[in-house]
Design brief:
homotrimer, alpha/beta, UDP-N-acetylmuramoyl-L-alanine:D-glutamate ligase, nine-stranded mixed β-sheet, 11 helices, magnesium (chains A, B, C), kinase (chains A, B, C), EC 2.7.1.50 (chains A, B, C)
């Protein structure tokens, strides 16, 4: 094997080992993941975390944050069906998590859909999330702090077109930034990796983006010091579950079912043969 | 062929063409459908719209209406889990949509279950929806402006028994009124058509009524000037997806999955062989 | 047959007859079950009730209680995604139901997760629920009136370890208390029965606990004077549906689908061959 190919092979093996190790840790430790999330995604998000081995808790009331949040292993905040009443609890949960040294992950759904939403997302970005995951339009909206880049919750930008925005946002926020798309891009503002797993039909299932953000929280929970690796691993693992599910699916609804079943059953052989993460 | 049968055949062909054309338009244009809806239905409603090719956005906060609603292609308002806090946003979204010339569709879930709910629905009816879709009990409650006609969210009236109520409501409101049932009835207050597709087990899946209302919004979005035809087409298309799904289903949960898959895969041949819409 | 075995056989036959009779009654009478429940569970809870033959209504607004709640057949209150705004309606619905002689069932999700949540649950317990169903950690938290016994929404206690707590809670509250687990325990504070149906993977599906609590409400609705028997029957019926579903499942998501389908199709032969309820 050529030295360059050898490096690539080693690199691939190292990512497979990383992803499998983290998935095993989730199954062994069953980390408690608090999700303050939108109404649409709660079911799929909880089932995604359960299938991966984590323990989800959809607890969003500000009255519970001080008692509950210090006991979690990671927090996921998603602004999908945002209203002013929910924002104080998101803010407080982020602060309590940070103070307790627990990682937290932000999903800035439709960040550019309104001024209210953009300001809420920018404020949350300022509260030091460990990871921010969105689609191209959302990351561009956050990076430029401007509305109008997105059409609703679906992206009108390819992930590759948001690479500079992602780097810039990662540098200014200190968070790992992930952009979902045909290729998922993950960056800490300097290093950039691409995760290539997944199938297009996953975008025809509501809340798959939200669900993978929760899964990132699960992965970061068991390896908080390597958030970039944990994020890329979660994105690939979810994508692989989608690929395996797609082999059995007849449409978006059966894909959703098979994706969750596949995530539950995922083994090292499947990860090893399918995982594709590379430096960009 | 006898002249009368020839007319019927032409009529059928014209409905098939209409329904297929609208479905193609949704798939091509991916209209943005804002849904202010109940908590139970959000998942199925979003997945129904995605499977049909539309882009759903569950954005319900009054703070976002002025920025977001002018950019949508149609609005769906559903009062299923109504609370006073949500009503102002429903009102404002309906007004902004109307002012921007965007069609909007009302689902008066359990309209007769309480005075609060009935009054909210009547107020929304006064804001000029393009289409109102309910079951027999809901349309009767709205038409008579009286509570007690319905037992919870399930209808205690057949759609045919609500025909006069539907005509009367259509005339007084200016909306197209659709009554779901074994036969779906659609009227503008003068003309009445019946849509015969669907299977009884669809009523054993929660939120199928809500989902078809959202689908109507998708169809009206791509043909706002022919709301009666768009509404009848959406009801038949959803019913046909249910019929095809039923061939593979073992119960309500597998029917739900196959229905969504079938909607995603629906082609002209299936519509042509199954669609049944006639004048009444 | 030995006299002792004969008694056991008679006992088993009597439970089979009880469970089948109640399920038939639900299918015949379609009782109206009001659910004030968490956002995560609404879909599965409604579909569980529909598949069993009941008519669910997720109506939670305090403005509707006086009009609507007197017409229901049973009420289910679940505190999963509790916030202060929802508590007054829960309180009022419980009071109106009790005053109207309608049974109501409490699901104290994650009762020990915070002081706010524990106090809310204890207050609801004081409003005389007919049945309380939780996991081991939740029943212990309620019985000891102390937080910290539970890790999020998943139990860290086996049901058997909560037996004394369940008896004590039943005695102090006057409610039937059910503890879900590998064995479901049901007690009125004196008599204790165990229900053995179900499969472990049901815990990997979000909201199965919530769903079975709603099913208990359905069973108690058609036999309010025998709440212990109705509760044990509902737990076994749901467990049997899970067992049958498990024979066809490849993971948690397909199990969820097959469970609901199986509940819909459940017949006396399956109940007779699988049901296992015994005195403890």
């Amino acid at each position: 094997m050529e030295p360059n190919n050898l490096n690539k092979e080693q690199d691939k093996n190292s990512w497979v080992l990383k992803a499998c190790t983290l998935l095993s840790k989730i199954r062994d430790q069953s980390p408690l993941i608090q999700c303050i999330t939108n109404f649409v995604s709660m079911d799929l998000m909880a089932n995604t975390l359960l299938s991966a081995g984590a323990s989800p808790a959809m607890i969003h009331s500000i009255e519970e944050i001080q008692d509950f949040t210090p006991n979690i292993h990671a927090l996921c905040i998603n602004v999908g069906t945002l209203s002013p009443a929910w924002l104080p609890a998101m803010r407080e949960a982020a602060q309590v998590a940070t103070k307790a040294g627990k990682p937290w992950v932000l999903d800035p759904v439709a960040a550019g859909a309104s001024g209210f939403r953009l300001n809420a997302c920018l404020e949350l970005v300022g509260l030091k999330p460990s990871v921010i995951r969105g689609n191209g339009s959302e990351i561009i909206a956050l990076s430029k702090a401007s509305i109008g880049a997105s059409k609703g919750v679906d992206s009108s930008h390819e992930s590759m077109g948001a690479m500079e925005a992602a780097k810039s946002l990662a540098q200014s926020s200190g968070a790992i930034v992930a952009v979902s798309g045909a290729v998922d891009i993950i960056t800490d503002g300097h290093r950039i990796v691409g995760a290539y797993n997944g199938v297009p039909m996953m975008q025809k299932i509501t809340a798959t983006g939200c669900a993978v953000t929760a899964l990132i929280a699960g992965f970061v929970a068991v390896d908080p010091l390597h958030a970039l690796e944990a994020t890329a691993s979660a994105l690939s693992i979810f994508g692989i579950a989608g690929e395996i599910g797609m082999d059995m699916a007849n449409g978006p609804a059966s894909l959703r079912m098979h994706l969750i079943d596949s995530l539950y059953n995922l083994d090292q052989a499947a990860v090893s043969s399918r995982l594709k993460i590379t430096g960009l």
